[in-house]
Sequence to fold (372 residues):
Amino acid sequence: MTYFRSSLAAALLTTLSAALASSGCSSDEAEPSPSTGGSGSSAGGSDTSTGGSDTSTGGTSTGGNATGTGGAGNASSGGMGSGNAPSTDEVVGNFRITLKDPTASRDGFTEVIGFVYEKPYPQELVWEETHSAGDCQLLEPSVPFCDPACTGGSVCVESGDCVTPPVKKSLGDATVRGVRTTAGATEFTMKPVAGNYQPGGDTGTLPYESFAAGDALSVSTTGGDFAPITLESTGIEPLVVTTAAPVPVESGKAVSLAWEAGSNPDAKLDIKLEISHHGGVKGMVTCQVPDTGSTEIPEPLVTELIALGVAGYPTVSLTRVTSDSASISAGRVDLLVMSQMSLQVQIPGLISCSEQEPCPDGQECTPARKCE
Fold:
């Protein structure tokens, strides 16, 4: 069965879909899907990466030409934003408010982006839950097969059909409330440019902590190609992971993760353990857990994931998130408020490699970016 857990879980899955369906190794940059967030936020990666080189730092990457069908409504409180009855519950767009941590080369800031497609974006990878334990699931991908092969930019989907990717549409003006600007305003309006929403030059760069945990945040649209919608969520603190990198990941052992617990009771932690990105993803473990400060990825899922295969520079990502959803005639539009961090993991016997980090003498760097 095809499986998606939540709005953000859909984003985590689609981060890999296009980038890995047609290539053994690729960056996370790709044409964004409704489940990922456009020219902007990285789902499952982050702009803050700890523990080595070639980690998924996301910056503003997401991509994946796929559509999630995760739970509609606020991931924490179950609310459903105002809108119209949809023709499908599949995601066709989103707005993302992401805390981007400071780095050595720039200050932190708050990123706000959004877009919507005319219909669900076709999935280039089909993800299936093969095992679950506690709050976590092991997901394995398959690549749809079409005969004859798809041409002209069309995408092969699970049904064996070639589907033309959808185009972006307008929701009219989008007003963001609750996010403080550099000038001190707590409301600003975004106009769609080529189907993309982001703050205009008059708004400028948004401060890093432009809202507090629990603050009311919303996005309201005036209507364009679709009827007006309103999405409402609440603010979060920046995520601070206290587990040191690289994180040990070993067959026969659970993976322990810790972070500074947040104060917003609506927030959840979404986790993605993905250890075979380079050379062709074999699977991943995703979890959604309470924001209490610690959790474990169960041993059976870790052992099964490693058995599927590993590649260089494996990572585990943690994302604090609150969310809401609203319906339009084409499907579902999500609001995600996020803070993310990605850490390298260490697997016994695995040596990662790249042009900048060659293998030890007597070993070669494979296309999977591991020494053999």
Observations:
- The longest helix spans residues 7-21.
- The chain is about 5% helix and 30% strand.
- The first strand starts at residue 49 and ends at 50.
